Structure prediction request, 217 residues.
Amino acid sequence: MNRIIYFKILFQLVLALAFSAAHAGAYEDFFKAVTVDDATTVERLLQRGFDPNSRNEDGQPALLLCMREGSERVAEVLLRSPTLEPDLANAAGETALMMAALKGRTEWARRLAEHGARIDREGWSPLHYAATGGPPELSRWLLDAGARIDARSPNGTTALMMASRYGSEATVHLLLQRGADARLHNDRQLDAAAFAKLGGREPLAAMLAARAASAPE
Prediction:
């Protein structure tokens, strides 16, 4: 009887080790395929039961990586998965929609929103990211879709502040036209004009300072 139990346990252990090794191989194959935009491999692994919401070793969800790397064919496959969570965030609170906004992928931002990704969220938001790296059309679309124009990041930074230092001047003007408040300060007591100065954009800083000074109380 003891020998039977022993062999049963041994057999179960061998199966467990084989499953673990196979899963590890699938994990490596999956994220390599995501990085190089190999949609065929990703689709094959998903059909075998691989989780489309898996994270890589750095904690980045696969769909977010697609937006970061420009892996559009893989993103198409992931969006077709019925178990995909399109608004899954990494440890920094970044989502695939936020990464699409940062990279200026306007059409992908629209598609992610159609699949359930949130336009507006507490803390850093898609609008912050669009104002930093996206075209003004992307910020306009987010605002039209319900993004709060003066939403604050965890340290009180607004989209206007980010655009003033890192984004295009067209985005700065768009945000102002849509009602962004140039008088606001973040937790470091920096306003949009100060952000522009930090970015070496003196004429823009002067315009923003004048705008803040002339704004009604």
Q: What stands out?
A: Confidence is low (pLDDT under 50) at residues 13-23. The first helix runs from residue 2 to 36. Residues 165 and 200 are 8 Å apart (CA to CA). DSSP finds twelve helices and no strands in the chain.
